[in-house]
């Protein structure tokens, strides 16, 4: 199995062993991947909660940010100064929501290595899961990638921000294309399940404006 700085062996080996154990326990490769995904999401749950708290705080100060942007729209330097002052006053960090994504990168690299090297046939099972052959690329899973990411961005309120509305469509389509071009759909199944699991976590997390009506149909706070 190929390992490197980006694909650490200490992460790949336990994931491979866990995937093998889950496959033996369930008898289905797809179900084993889903359970492995849930294990990963539970492990990074503290970071996910931290991310959701940060996103909620950013949504709460969104009206103040928009007021500054409108007031200093002709003075970018002053706008940046006022925005930084607002972040310090409200104790928010616009980049804090990226932390879980950064943590997941080595996990994704490790899982890609695991799925490339792991062969369920050698364990006496097949790659078949529902309609999909997980050893091949799969169009429905690629479409689910797009749908899940659009739902995720809608739930977090990004779809209502005019400055980010274009990214609401560009990012999911880009990830959908990446999912379609993957030589194996095993990693795509992981990504789809992980995203939908994240949606459930956001749905039950208290205080998300999108769900409680704090953001109206036009994204107003």
UniProtKB/TrEMBL annotation:
UniProt keywords, alphabetically: Cell membrane, Chaperone, Membrane, Protein transport, Transmembrane, Transmembrane helix, Transport
Location of the Membrane insertase YidC/Oxa/ALB C-terminal domain: 29-204
Membrane topology: Multi-pass membrane protein
InterPro entries found in the cross-reference section: YidC/ALB3/OXA1/COX18, YidC/Oxa/ALB_C, YidC_ALB_C
Localisation: Cell membrane; Membrane
Transmembrane residue ranges: 29-50, 98-118, 138-157, 169-193
Keyword DNA-binding on entry: no
Family (UniProt): Belongs to the OXA1/ALB3/YidC family.
Entry protein name: YidC/Oxa1 family membrane protein insertase
Organism encoding this protein: Symbiobacterium terraclitae
């Amino acid at each position: 199995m190929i390992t490197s700085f980006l694909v650490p062996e200490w992460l790949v080996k336990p994931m491979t062993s866990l995937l093998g154990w889950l496959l033996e326990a369930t008898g289905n490769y797809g179900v084993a991947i889903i359970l492995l995904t849930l294990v990963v999401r539970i492990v990074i749950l503290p970071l996910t909660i931290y991310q959701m708290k940060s996103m909620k705080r950013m949504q709460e100060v969104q009206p103040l940010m928009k007021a500054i942007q409108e007031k200093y729209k002709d003075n970018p330097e002053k706008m940046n100064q006022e925005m930084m002052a607002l972040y310090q006053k409200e104790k928010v960090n616009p980049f804090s929501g990226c932390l879980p994504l950064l943590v997941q990168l080595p996990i994704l690299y490790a899982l890609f290595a695991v799925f490339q090297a792991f062969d369920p046939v050698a364990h006496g099972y097949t790659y078949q899961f529902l309609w999909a052959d997980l050893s091949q690329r799969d169009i429905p899973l690629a479409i689910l990638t797009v749908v899940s990411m659009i739902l995720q961005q809608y739930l977090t309120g990004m779809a209502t921000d005019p400055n980010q509305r274009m990214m609401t469509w560009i990012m999911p389509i880009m990830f959908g294309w990446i999912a379609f071009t993957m030589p194996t759909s095993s990693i795509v199944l992981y990504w789809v399940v992980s995203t939908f699991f994240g949606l459930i976590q956001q749905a039950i997390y208290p205080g998300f404006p999108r769900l409680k009506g704090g953001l109206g149909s036009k994204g107003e706070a």
